[in-house]
Amino acid sequence: MSIDERINQFLHSEERAPLPYRAGDRVPIRITRIMEYGAFVVTRDQYMAPGLIHVSQIPDGVNLEVNQMIDAEIRQIKDDHKVEFSLMFMEKKESPFQLLEGMKKDLPKKEVPQDEVEQIIQDLSREFGIVSEDSKKKIEEMVEKMGVYRFTKAMMETLPHFQRDLVYHFLEEMNQEREYL
User: Fold this and answer.
1) Tell me, what CATH number does 76's domain have?
2) How many alpha carbons lie under 13 Å from residue 80 in its C-beta half-sphere?
């Protein structure tokens, strides 16, 4: 019996030890043949387990070539020791924007410039009179959310069109207080 016949007999015998892989493992592989339905591969280790990467498991934009060596993820190991592989994990890489979002979370929280908030409160006080503590907190929250520039710009665009009926607001507040009594 020739060496090729013995290798073939061994590969097709039931004496083979079970493969140590599990679904989800990533292993190094070599592409051996490419067909329209997928790529035939063999693991690059002592087991040399044959398998297939079905075309549905190859992400868009990934080009494979014969003899190319890459890592693949194991989807399933069949009874005949053939392995189904996937390259879909390549598609799950973080986009640069996700990476930046992660970095942004680690940055120190921006502080609200208190001197500029005080100036805004003074300007609103000249325009409307008394600015309550609740209004001051609301101004600070809005400046923190919008930034000083955008808040000031929005304020300057809104002021000329704002109808000042303080009596109406007073009566609304008085009505709310009356409900508590």
Assistant:
1) 2.40.50.140
2) 6
